[in-house]
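Ticket #4471: structure output looks truncated?

Reporter: J.K.
Steps to reproduce: submitted the chain below (208 residues) through the standard prediction queue, then opened the result file.
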Amino acid sequence: MEKSMYSLILRDDLVEELDRLAFKNGVSRSVMLNKILSEYLDVETPEARMERTFLKMEQLIGAASGLRFTNNASLAMAQVQSALHYRYNPTLRYQVELFPSGDLGQLKISLRSQSKELFRIMEGFYSLFISLEKKYIGERAYFYRDGKFVRVFVRPENAAAEELGEAIGEFVREFDEYLNIYLSSGEDAAATIEKAFVKNLKEKKVIL
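Returned output as attached by the reporter:
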């Protein structure tokens, strides 16, 4: 959906109120005006669709133990934090970014730790996770750089915003579950994770 520049003549007191709302929501004046007009005219913008997606994701993550959701829909991003079941319980951050077109978005995973051993373990888990996805759902796009792992989400056809939010939330929750199994289950981890992966896959409505 393209955007254009328009010249409008507005009352000063209305602009002041618009700016107040924009500041409160952490967005620009233009973004706030777009939001107000889309709601009043009942026209769904890409930004409104992203917001609905994140709201559903927040509901699902909020019900999950050990995960904390934070949202900044104006930037098309949301974050989930988790404390790993590993010595000192280091913080793992899941950053979800949604795209207005093309691929649905991406999940960027970063770890706050100075442990080279833990990063080596994480790389082993990433390799296992990629192999499971390739085996059961096919090729997806991945990147790994400077200790950060990125998984690109494909855009499912005809999926509602709430279905996408649920699918993303499930993806993050399950990924975190698999990772903690990997950190605590020793030699049986790979088999345990694969069994859980297959079980969860059978219950999915939307595959990213």
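Triage note (M.O.): checked the attachment and the full token line is present. The radius of gyration is 20 Å.
Status: closed, working as intended.
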